[in-house]
Amino acid sequence: MRVLVVMDPIETVNLKKDSTMAMLWAASRRGHELGYALQHDLYIDQGKAFGLISPLQVFEDYNHYYELGEKRKESLADYDVVLMRKDPPFDMNFVYTTYILEQAEREGAWIINKPQSLRDCNEKLFATQFPELQVPTLVTSQQSLIREFIKTHGDVIVKP
Questions:
Q1: Domain Prokaryotic glutathione synthetase ATP-binding spans what residues (predicted)?
Q2: Share of the chain above pLDDT 70, in %
Q3: Closest CA to 82 of 7, 159, 157, 160
Q4: How far is CA 32 from each of CA 22, 40, 53, 63, rounded to the nearest angstrom?
Q5: Model-level pTM?
Q6: Does domain 2-120 have CATH number 3.40.50.20?
Q7: Could you count the other beta carbons within 10 Å of the beta carbon of residue 148?
Q8: Hey, is 22 helix, strand or coil?
Q9: How confident is the model at residue 87 (pLDDT cuts 50, 70, 90)?
Q10: Among the residues of 3-156, which ranges form H helices?
Q11: From the CA atom positions of the chain, what is the Rg in Å?
């Protein structure tokens, strides 16, 4: 099976906790052929989804955990599965990447995680649809509301 992973720069991965590397190691152990691309390597040419893809070998050795081959132009539809593992930020580059992956999906590629779901189910806001399953939560950029929330709830976690 041919597996393409679209992810953050592989040299920045935290090997002790990165689930993408765990998946790649598992795929390698099973003999699957791996390809690697960054977001900006994906593009559409004449209505078809392509990427500048590097062949990837992975090793379960923290001192030498990957080797990349020379980039080559390939159709994303030539891969059996494309793993979309790019971490946020959710910006326009991320949105455009999901559109390119949707084109690959229309061409027959199996995309994990589904591009439309990545847009529709923002990781920060999706959980707010289930308030009965979470602690008190506020999503705002208004400092006065944040102060009021802290006053009401005491110890809180604030994320930018």
A1: 123-160
A2: 100
A3: 7
A4: 14, 24, 16, 22
A5: 0.83
A6: yes
A7: 13
A8: helix
A9: confident
A10: 19-29, 92-106, 115-120, 143-153
A11: 19
Residue 30 one-letter amino acid: R
pLDDT(71) > 90: yes
Among the listed residues 89, 138, 139, the one whose alpha carbon sits nearest the alpha carbon of residue 118: 89
Using a 10 angstrom Cβ sphere, with 0-12 exposed, 13-18 middle and 19 or more buried, the burial of residue 23 is middle
Domain boundaries, the chain: 2-120, 124-160
Record the tokens describing residue 66, joined without a space. Answer: 């990957």
CA distances 66 to 1, 10, 63, 74, 88, Å, are: 19, 8, 9, 21, 23
> What integer is the mean pLDDT of 142-158?
93
Spatial contact of 58 and 21, defined as CB atoms under 8 Å apart: yes
144: Cα separation from own chain's centroid: 34
The pLDDT assigned to 65 comes to: 97
